[in-house]
Amino acid sequence: MGSGAARGRHHNGSSTSPGSATPVSAEASPDAHPAVAVSSVDAGSLVALDALFRRLPVGLMIFDADLRYARVNDALLAMDGGTVDERCGRTIDEVHPDVAPEVDRSLRRVLETGQPILGARLEGELRPGRARVWRMSYVPIDASDGSRCGVGAVAEDITDVERMEDVARQDRVRLELLSGATAEVNAALDPGTKLQALARTVVPAVADVCAVFLVGPEPRAGEGHGVQVRADPVAFEARPGLDGVRPEPGVGIHFPGDDPVTSAARTRAASLHRLDPARMPSWAQALQSGAWRAEEQPHTMVGVPVVAGGEVVAVVLLVACGDRPTYGVDDLHMMGQLAARANVAVEHGMRFHQSQEIANTLQRSMLPRADVTSVDGLEVAARYLPATDDAEVGGDWYDIIRPRSGGVGLVMGDVMGRGVHAAAVMGQIRTAVRAYAKLGMSPGELLRALDELMVDIGEAEFATCIYAVLDPATYQLRFANAGHVPPLVARAGGATSSLEADQGPPLGAGVGGYREHVWSLPEEVILALYTDGLVESHRHDLDDGIRALAGVLSGDGTSLDGLCDEAIESMARVGGGDDDTALLLVRRRPRPVR
Fold it and tell me: Which of 110, 115, 293, 347 makes an SS bond possible with 308, Cβ 3.0 to 4.6 Å?
């Protein structure tokens, strides 16, 4: 693979000069395979053909019937800086042994079959240490009598093209990775879940191991100590076969200051560290929780900071092991972009988590004390559960109060909406119910007063509520319903039904119309008040959920506490937990035997 107006050789081995060499033309039999045929042409055509051979920007080679170089052009010579004399009369193996086996196979195939080979990829070195990639084409050269007299070859250097294609391909992969990481992280609300989603995204795409450590306050400039992290990573992911490198639970890892975790926390920038598998630092040994097998030894680690609220809250540690290429500057940039996707999401998750905790604390603080369920003549059990971790707390509540008019007041309500605002509105309504009950209002009057209060609160606030007063002496229940799911009445081993009395509109509609109803609580019958979060979810509708709850309440059992737990667990199995859940069960105590 050399240059220019080289002397050539006939297929019989005799030398030719540029002026007397047998010229090359495109004449060939229509029935022949594509080939270059040798025939007589005029001197002008020979000059033009020679000029074309010289000036084409691709490497051109002509091999004789012995597969020795007969002629090369300047473009081929420029590929490796060789000379014409170093090529002509020699074989490809004598000139370029690194690529010779593949080129020789192609030349012989074309020489023997007469079939051209077009666009073959060839990779190798023409000069030591300078690997290149070419697109090669080989065509047979036939004499005017039809005999095969050689092979012509065209070499096009596509090294830079392939590199650009590889860069573009890597950019597409990185873009897909960043897009996937953004979607995965944003889909979770809890900060810990977000960081675990990030770890799942990067392994095994760009790392063999990913561990996310929560860090304490950032070290001040000039301090020599490192960053103390939580004993266990808050998130961890390893590619198949490396699961055993998870740190042992409860074993704290102290990073000494010259490691990627400390560097990332201090500089707020991705930090690259190369490791000698034979001399693993103590912190890396702690991370591996045992000896790495030889083929799994880590060679590069990168620490990437996660910033939330203006502070570094975590460091993502990425580990490359075994035959994975070592990380470089481009990888640092991409990993920084990955962390940036997590920064915003984690900060949002932290704010959400704090808001949820505030709402949850506010809501729980307004529920009845544990001893309030102890009521003379009645067995009472209640449960309240906030929504699952990926949903905001709502405005569900229950209450048991002592009205001035006597008896036991039972309340079950649900403020529409979620979050701190819903919990705060619920607190106002709960306080009002207690105040109105102390004034001796009947159920219908109390709900009318609450309706007016909700209108005064404004902002299109709505709530549903049942208020009932049970007389422990007569077990007569007087109640009114403001758009709430109807109570259930159930007998163990018997039928279950709803108290389908007329419902008034939700509180906040401002139209009133809350009729009172009276019902007597028989012995061994359970009265159940609940919120729709117990019986309705994305997996089943309200009616199906009510039927499922009725089935649980009609089962055999004596303890209302146990029945409460069974109802909560059973409804969770059929798809509950999307919303807050409140449940209040009431049953007459057995009369003492005289």
Answer: 347
